[in-house]
Design brief:
- This protein has 18 helices and no strands.
- It starts with 10 loop residues before the first helix and ends in a 5-residue tail after the last helix.
- Helix 3 packs antiparallel against helix 10, helix 4 crosses helix 7 and helix 17 runs antiparallel to helix 18.
- The N terminus is likely disordered.
- The protein has 2 domains: 166 residues, Histone Acetyltransferase, Chain A (Up-down Bundle); 147 residues, no CATH class.
- By secondary structure, it is mainly α.
């Protein structure tokens, strides 16, 4: 799963009793209370599994689990982005046995049952790492509204999955009520990371764009947005050629140019992008350039046809717009 919000909880909170939790919760926002409840549910689930290392093996050995338990297996598989087996009509218990409960090949026979539990905990930890994200909230939305998903209902059928249900409900409560702008911030960070990885993979990408004599209008549109976000004066002033403007600013190597001209062009471009990214969410962003981002020609799908690099630049600009101007979206 992709990266999630920070969910660090003080040890004193994560191990608190219900009475202590009520004291700790005094004066806290709903979001903070949800965060504490989720951390407590996770901590309790780990303690239950630590106390009995055969719980997961017992669940895996069942030929046909109760409906409520099967529902949780389906949700866990989806949270781990595991494809159902068979694909046409998934049996989620079989799928869970092949993925969530499957010990690694390195597990010795004597520790086989514990190996199943270790795999299960590792998979749940991956889900936990994405706590607070929109992905988690979206997947759990339908699950959390079902009566047969309630912890008290599941506990009657399986103690372990009763605790899993409690954790999932708390996880949904925390993720669905995350701080305003958190999802947009996460999306922006993800788009920025992908763009940086693409640039790092090929130092000639910017030189290829800069070397175009007459680039497609989709690329020119993105260059206009970038120039305006960097407050670059258009060239010529009266009838701007935004590709020329970008070549003279966004792609221009420094004066102390080295033999690696292409590499220097990329460094200049990266510097300009970082200046824009550092202002994400600030009040000084002009509305105008972001209106251009909303142009149909500026979509990631359109840019993908013209330039792999600008496909990632477009995705980042859209995420930047959503984060910086949420009221306008």
């Amino acid at each position: 799963m992709g990266s999630g919000a920070s969910t660090a909880i003080p040890v004193a909170v994560a191990t608190a009793s219900l009475a202590e939790l009520q004291d700790l919760s005094q004066g806290l926002s709903t979001a903070d209370k949800n965060k504490i409840a989720y951390a407590l549910a996770w901590n309790k689930l780990l303690r239950v599994m630590d106390k009995d290392k055969h719980l997961v093996a017992e669940m895996a050995a069942i030929s046909k689990p109760p409906p409520g338990v099967s529902l949780l297996e389906q949700v866990l598989c989806k949270l781990c982005f595991v494809a159902g087996v068979p694909a046409e009509a998934p049996d989620w218990h079989v799928t869970a046995r092949l993925t969530l409960y499957k010990p690694t090949s390195a597990v010795i026979v004597a520790k086989y049952e514990e190996g199943k539990q270790k795999t299960f905990i590792e998979e749940l930890t991956k889900i936990n790492a994405a706590a607070g994200s929109k992905v988690i909230a979206d997947i759990l939305a339908d699950f959390a509204g079902r009566a047969d998903s309630l912890p008290e209902h599941i506990s009657k059928k399986c103690t372990l999955f009763g605790h899993v249900a409690m954790w999932l409900h708390a996880l949904y409560g925390y993720s669905a009520c995350a701080e305003p702008g958190l999802f947009a911030k996460q999306a922006l960070a993800e788009a920025w990371g992908k763009m940086m990885n693409k640039l790092a993979s090929d130092k000639y990408l910017v030189a290829e764009i800069g070397g175009l004599l007459q680039p497609p209008p989709e690329i020119v549109l993105v260059e206009e947005v970038l120039c305006k976000l960097c407050s670059v004066a258009p060239v010529p002033p009266n009838s701007p050629d935004w590709h020329l403007s970008a070549r003279m600013s966004l792609y221009r190597p420094p004066d102390d140019i080295s033999a690696e001209v292409d590499d220097d062009m990329q460094k200049t471009f990266l510097t300009m992008l970082r200046k824009i990214h550092a202002r994400a969410g600030s009040d000084d962003f002009a509305i105008g350039p972001f209106d251009l981002v909303a142009d149909p020609r500026c979509t990631t799908e359109e840019l993908k046809k013209q330039s792999l690099l600008f496909q990632y630049v477009s995705a980042w600009l859209h995420a930047l717009r959503a984060y910086s101007l949420p009221a306008e979206i």
